[in-house]
Amino acid sequence: MRTAHSVVQIRAAEAALMATVPDGTLMDRAATGLATACVDFLGGAYGADVVIVAGSGANGGDALYAGARLARRGARVAAILLDPGKAHAGGLAALRSAGGHVVPEDEREDAVARADLVLDGIVGIGGKPGLRPEAAAVMELVERYDVPVVAVDVPSGIDVDTGETPEPHVRAAVTVTFGTHKVGLLVDPGASAAGVVHLVDIGLGPYLPDPVVESLQASDVAALLPAPDRTSHKYTRGVLGVVAGSDQYTGAAVLAVSGALGGPLGMVRYVGPDEPARLVRARWPEVVAGEGRVQAWVVGSGLGDAPERAEDVARALADDVPVLVDADGLRHVLARCEGEVLLTPHEGELARMLEVERSNVTARRLHYACEAADRWNATVLLKGATTVVASPNGRVRVNSVGTPWVATAGSGDVLSGICGALLAGGLSPLDAGSVGCFLHETAGVLASRGGPIVAEDIAAALPDAYRYVRAAEGT
Ligand SMILES: NC(=O)C1=CN([C@@H]2O[C@H](COP(=O)(O)OP(=O)(O)OC[C@H]3O[C@@H](n4cnc5c(N)ncnc54)[C@H](O)[C@@H]3O)[C@@H](O)[C@H]2O)[C@@H](O)CC1
Ligand SMILES: Nc1ncnc2c1ncn2[C@@H]1O[C@H](COP(=O)(O)OP(=O)(O)O)[C@@H](O)[C@H]1O
Ligand SMILES: [K+]
C-alpha cells in the first residue's frame, strides 16, 4: 500500500523521530537518497552540470547537501540562492567545500541554459502554494531551456495537502519525497506536476498515524480479489444485475456487461429494452435477460436522459443490495443514499451533480469527491488520470496506475461493469471502486502496449489484469 499523510501528521512524526536520533540525521538520510536518485536520473554524476534552486528553508538544505554529494562524485554543481542571506548555512558550507559554487545573479540564465538537471529545493512541506516572483522567474528560464527537474520532497508551489495548483508551480520529471507520500503527489493536478515519484525511507514509518489517502498496489489488489473455491457455485460467487443501455445507446449495455464478465462473478442478469437485450445476448450467450435475484446492481450507463428511466435507478436503489450508479443514472440520484452505494461520475457529471463549473472540479478533485461522498452518503469514484475514490466515512483512495489510452469512448461503461462485479463478489464500495479501477487501468496498459485501444479491448484484457495482480500476490 502506498500511503500519503498530511503536513501536520508529517511534522509530528518528524519531531518524534528527531528526538531519538542525532541532529542532522534526517537531512543526511534525505540528501543521500536524493543524490542517489539524481545519479540514477543522469545515468552517472561525472561531468554533469547540475543547478540547484534553493529557498531559505530545510528543503533548500536538502538540495544543497545533495548537491555536495553530487559534486564529490564529479558533477559541476552551481546553486541559485533565492534568498542568499538566509540560505541553509550547513548545506551551503557543504556544497562549497565539495567544490560547488553560488551563481551570481547576472549569470543565472547562462547557468540554467547549460544545465543537464535542475534540483528544485525552493520549498517543501513548509511552502505556501505558488512561487514568489523571483522563484517563478528562475523556473521560467528552466522551462524555456527545457531542463529536466528533480523536485525535492514536492514540486514547489503545489498545495501539498490537496494536490491543487491554483498558482505557478514547478513541473518535475521526478519527485524524490521523504518519509511518506504527500497527498498532493497522488492527487491531480499535483500528481502530474510531480512526475515519477520516488520515496526515500528516512525512518518515519513507526511514527506515522493512519494515512489520509491510500493508493493500492498490485499486491494489495490481489489480497482483496474474490476467487472461487471448491465449494463455489455460480450463485455463491455473486450475480450482478446490469441496467444499462437504451434504444439510442445500445453499446453501453454490451460494454457494461463485458466489463462485468471480466470480473470474478458467477452470473450477469441484463435488464433493459429489447434491442440492447438482443445485442447483449448475441454477444454474450451466458447472460440471462430479465429480472431475478442479484447480489448487486449496476445502473446507469447509456440510459439516456428520458425522465422515465429515473424509475430504473429508484428500483435498484430501493433493493437491499449494493448499487453502483454511473453516467445518465447519476441524474436521478437526488436524495441522500442508504445502504452501500458507489457513484462513478467523470468530472463533467460530478460538476453537474454539485452545480459547479467543470473547471472547478478539475482543479479541486479531492475536495469535490469528498464533498459529494458526504452529501450523498455514498462512495464517490471520480474518474480521470488519477481516479479518486472517496467514501462517506472519510477514507480516500487514489489510483495512480494506468495509461491515457484508457480515455476512450465506452471505457467508463466497462469500468462500471467490473466494479459492479466486485460489489456482487462481496467487496465494499471503497474496495470495489479502487480494486475495479486498478484492474481496469491495468487491463488498459496490457491491451494498449503504447498504442490505441477501444473499450472492448479493455474488457477483453480484464482476465489478464486479474492474472497479473494475482502474480504480484505476496510481493
Ligand atoms: N523537518 C525534518 O525533520 C526534515 C525536513 N526535511 C526537509 O525540510 C522541508 C521542510 O522544511 P521547512 O520547514 O524549513 O520549510 P520549507 O523549506 O518547505 O519552506 C519554508 C521556507 O520557504 C519560504 N516560503 C514559503 N512559501 C514560499 C513560496 N511560495 N515561495 C517561496 N518561498 C516560500 C518560507 O518563508 C520559509 O523560509 C521538507 O519538505 C524536506 O525537504 C528533510 O530534510 C527531512 C527531515
Ligand atoms: N488521462 C487518463 N489516464 C488514464 N485513464 C483515464 C484518463 N482519462 C480518463 N481515464 C479513464 O477512462 C475512463 C473514461 O470513462 P468515462 O469518462 O466515463 O468515458 P465514457 O463515458 O466514454 O465511457 C475512466 O475509467 C477514466 O478513469
Ligand atoms: K521542492
Description:
Homotetramer. InterPro entries: CARKD, Nnr, Ribokinase-like, YjeF_N_dom, YjeF_N_dom_sf. There is one protein chain. With 475 residues, the protein is of the alpha/beta class. It folds into two domains: 2-211, 3-Layer(aba) Sandwich (Rossmann fold); 218-471, Ribokinase (UDP-N-acetylmuramoyl-L-alanine:D-glutamate ligase, 3-Layer(aba) Sandwich). It is 42% helix and 16% strand. The protein contains 19 helices and 19 strands. A nine-stranded mixed sheet has the order 13-12-11-14-15-16-17-18-19, with helices on both faces. A seven-stranded parallel sheet has the order 4-3-2-5-6-7-9, sandwiched between helices. The chain has a three-stranded mixed sheet with strand order 8-1-10. A hairpin with a 5-residue loop joins strand 18 (388-390) and strand 19. The chain starts with a strand and ends with a helix. The mean pLDDT is 96. Bound molecules: ligand NAX, adenosine-5'-diphosphate (ADP) and potassium ion. Adenosine-5'-diphosphate binds next to helix 17 and helix 18.
Radius of gyration: 25 Å
**CATH topology grouping of the largest domain:** UDP-N-acetylmuramoyl-L-alanine:D-glutamate ligase
C-alpha end-to-end distance: 11 Å
In this structure, how is the largest beta sheet organized? Answer: 9 strands, mixed
Helix content: 40-55%
Count of extended strands:
19
Uncertain segments of ≥5 residues (pLDDT<50)? none
* Overall tally of structural domains: 2
Mean pLDDT: 96
The percent range for strand residues is 15-25%
Per DSSP, the total helix count is 19
Small-molecule binders here are: ligand NAX, adenosine-5'-diphosphate, potassium ion
Q: What characteristic shape results from the CA principal axes?
A: elongated
CATH architecture of the largest domain, by name, is: 3-Layer(aba) Sandwich
Strands ordered across the widest β-sheet: 13-12-11-14-15-16-17-18-19
What is the CATH C-level name of the largest domain?
Alpha Beta
Tell me the name of the CATH homologous superfamily of the largest domain.
Ribokinase
Secondary-structure content class: alpha/beta
